[in-house]
Amino acid sequence: MIGLAIATWAFLIGGEVIEFLGLRAGIAAMVVGNAIGVGLVVASVLGDTKYGLEHFSLVRAVFGRHGVKPLIYVVNFLVCVGWSGILAVMFGRAAVNIVNELAGTTHGGDHGLVALFGLVALACAWWVVVRGPLTLRWLNRIAAPGLTVVIVVMLVFLFQGNSWSDLASIVPLDPPENPLLGFVLVVEFSVAGGLSWWPAQGNLSRLATTQRSALWASVVGLFVVTILAQTVGLMAALAYGTSDPTSWMIPLTGAGFGILILVWIGFANITTMSVQAYQVCVAMRQESVRWISGMSWPLLVGLFLGLSALFLIRPSAVYDNFFQFLYWISLAYAPVVGIVLVDYFLLRRQRLDLRALFSHRTGDPYDFWKGWNPAAWGAVAAGAGVYLWLLDPVSLRSAPAFPYMTASVPSLLAAALVYLLLTRMWVIPSGRGGYGLHATTDFPRSPDPNAGEIP
Amino acid sequence: MAGHPGDAAGHGRKAEGTTGGPGPLREFDDQLRKRLDVITDPGYTDPAREDLGAVDWVLFVGFLLACAVGAVIWGA
User: Fold this and answer.
1) How close is the nearest chain A Cα to the Cα of B56, in Å?
2) What is the pLDDT of residues A266-308, one digit of tens each?
3) Cβ within 8 Å of residue A455, ≥6 positions away
4) Which of A67, A268, A333, A442 has the most CB atoms within 10 Å of its CB?
5) Distance of residue A99 Cα from the nearest chain B Cα, in angstroms
6) pLDDT band at residue A265 under the 50/70/90 scheme
7) Beta carbons of B51 and A211 less than 8 angstroms apart
8) A92-96, A171-175, A319-323, A405-409: which has the minimum mean pLDDT?
9) What is the pLDDT of chain A when averaged over all its residues?
10) Looking at residue A4, what is its pLDDT?
11) A288: left (phi over 0), alpha (psi -120 to 50) or beta
């Protein structure tokens, strides 16, 4: 978890804060946003620890065995393609900064070399994922400790050249007229940063031996360590007036250390892209869509990473407006997390039928209507509508209520409420969803235990 | 090449060690056998099945709430 938390995107998120807020208010907004986002995510994946399931297998109990597929093949896929594309751009920019330093050139952030090096990063990630999880494990063992060293080195150099009061006196780049709006815009994308862990956190939590250890490890890894890494990113961004982490390192630490750190950032990004590609492609394989299940592993991974390469056409388009990408993540995941929380804790009282989760038979508890639960997708639509009403992720136009309530929290609550009402008034009276069959032994079995198409 | 669940090529290879898994998974065979012995014992209860207690919930929510409120008072 710590490895994920101190991935280079923590620098990016911290750096984005300087658009709206200075040091103290920025740290405060990040703490509030991460407390909300991480808190909700950690609670929503306790079922993964309890049942030890791959995350989206557990979510079948909410969306149905077919209904979960859009979450995997559209939402999770696009979010991870976006993350990988952004990390590829960061790799490209880190490499171009090294070239600029060594060759005395002044290539900008959209130079063709950024795209070229980004493609190299994606190719390296493809090679790693095709080699398998043992290579991934080996890379992760050195990437996370290395980034911890980077954070410490950055802190040392930051406080060599600046005092706390120097950094605290620097004004943000583009603050809104209403200071509360700026604060909540940062809270909002910090919430999104927390929510973006949802699928990965589910898959990590399932490996924990108790729910207590899963919860507290997540709080330390995803909340405490993330805040530290983001704060270092914010301080460096304030010191150099840019949110791009690849621009800080050489001015901050000098050419020698700076180039080493940029090389390490590039390496860490390849590791993170590989982890993303691996988990997304494995999740896609497990859902039994025939043409994907039969596709060769190198081709599937290549397709995923190939789509990320689209972000290299114009690197600045998303990379320089990174926080807007986070708002889209929040729009997608906040309603889903709300629904999962209500379903697991309120409606099912933390009990699921494991066998039914893998059953493909019509009429089984989590079959709903031909494998789809329309109540869940209706609630997602309601939550997304509330989000868009409160905050437009493209134009950043916000409703008057937004500064007082964020967009993700009302979106999550609206989706949860709609799901609760639809389930109580429609799904349960229809006898669908297996509500009330709380023990794993309650599920009526077929006389032939092999009759179900259990994968 | 290391094998893994997503490796389509692995399906066509002869399994070595762990059933259905390619060669490198053999190193896990002993661990898997020991684990199976533990979890198939009739007296075994999985600690992961124990739901989070009230104290943990209060500490969890209280910690995050205290951090958020403290941060707002300090920085906003």
Assistant:
1) 7
2) 888 888 888 888 888 887 887 766 777 778 889 999 999 999 9
3) A286, A288, A358
4) A333
5) 34
6) confident
7) yes
8) A319-323
9) 88
10) 61
11) left
Determine if residue A399 is left, alpha or beta; phi over 0 gives left, psi from -120 to 50 gives alpha, anything else beta. beta
B7 and A CB contact within 8 Å: yes
Nearest CA in chain A to B72: A28
Torsion angle, CA of A381/A382/A383/A384, rounded to 10 degrees?
50
CA distance B40 to chain A (A): 16
From B8, B47, B68, residue closest to A209, measured CB to CB: B47
Answer for the pair A225, A6: CB distance below 8 angstroms, yes or no: yes
Tell me how far CA of residue A297 lies from CA of A241, A301, A435, B48, in angstroms. Answer: 43, 6, 38, 33
Structure tokens at A251: 């001015």
Query: Does the distance separating the beta carbons of B65 and A132 come in below 8 Å?
Result: no
- Closest of A431, A454, A448 to residue A354, by C-alpha: A454
Residues whose CB falls within 8 Å of the CB of residue A115, separated by 6 or more in sequence, listed in order: A92, A312, A313, A315
Count of alpha carbons within 13 Å of B44, Cβ hemisphere only? 10
> Using one digit for the tens of pLDDT, what is the confidence trace for A85-137?
999 999 999 999 999 999 989 898 889 999 999 999 999 999 999 987 777 77
Tokens of A158: 């930051």
Query: Touching check for B48 and chain A: CB below 8 Å?
Result: yes
Cross-chain residue pair B6–A281, CB shorter than 8 Å? yes
Average pLDDT over residues A374-397: 96
CA distance B70 to chain A (A): 8
A101 neighbors A252 (Cβ within 8 angstroms) = no
Contacts of A362 (CB under 8 A, 6+ apart): A370
B64–A contact, CB cutoff 8 A: yes
Query: What pLDDT was estimated at residue B7?
Result: 39
d(CA A408, CA A411): 5
Within 8 A of A346 by CB-CB distance, chain B residues are: none
Query: Is B61's Cβ below 8 Å from some Cβ in A?
Result: yes
Q: Which of A15, A86, A55 is nearest to A329 (CA)?
A: A86
pLDDT for the residue A454: 34
Interface contact A208-B48, CB threshold 8 A:
yes
What is the dihedral sign for C-alpha A286, A215, A403, A239? negative
Residue of B nearest to A280 (CA): B6
- Residue A296 three-state SS: coil
Q: Are A384 and A333 in contact (CB under 8 A)?
A: no
* Coil/strand/helix, residue A349: coil
Which residue has 């859009």 as its token pair? A70
Look-up: residue for tokens 């043992």?
A134
